[in-house]
Inverse folding.
């Protein structure tokens, strides 16, 4: 029996064909049944893999947070059980818009947060990426 539950598995050769990669990844891992690790989410519809809100950092952040909510629910958790987020932005001027959106989604949650300014993300149209760590609410393994 596997130790970890992997949700929405994919291979990078399908999602990034232009990069000639071949890595087996997933969107979410439930480790030891209680810890939920959500892969960095961007302005992309997870069902279609289409980028959304191109040029709109707030819109991309909304999509990233909606993805995180959906993935946490698929794992048996919720936004309220996030313990840590990491936010990557490609321009420090985006900080206020991004944090305003995240603050709306995580009002009253009080996670630990790290913000990082990077030179680029995996695709040039992506302006922000957010990853999250959460727990399964009642501690019952998923």
């Amino acid at each position: 029996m596997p130790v970890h539950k992997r949700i929405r598995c994919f291979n990078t050769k399908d999602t990034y064909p232009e990069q000639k990669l071949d890595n087996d990844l997933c969107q979410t891992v439930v480790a030891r049944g209680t810890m939920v690790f959500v892969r960095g989410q961007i302005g992309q519809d997870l069902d279609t893999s289409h980028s959304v809100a191109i040029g709109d950092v707030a819109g991309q952040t909304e999509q990233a947070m909606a993805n995180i909510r959906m993935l946490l629910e698929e794992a048996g958790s919720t936004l309220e059980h996030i313990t840590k987020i990491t936010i990557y932005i490609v321009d420090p001027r985006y900080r206020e818009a991004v944090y305003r959106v995240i603050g709306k989604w995580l009002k009253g949650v009080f996670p630990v947060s790290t913000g990082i300014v990077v030179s680029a993300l995996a695709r040039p149209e992506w302006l922000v990426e957010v990853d999250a760590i959460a727990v399964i609410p009642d501690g019952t393994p998923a």
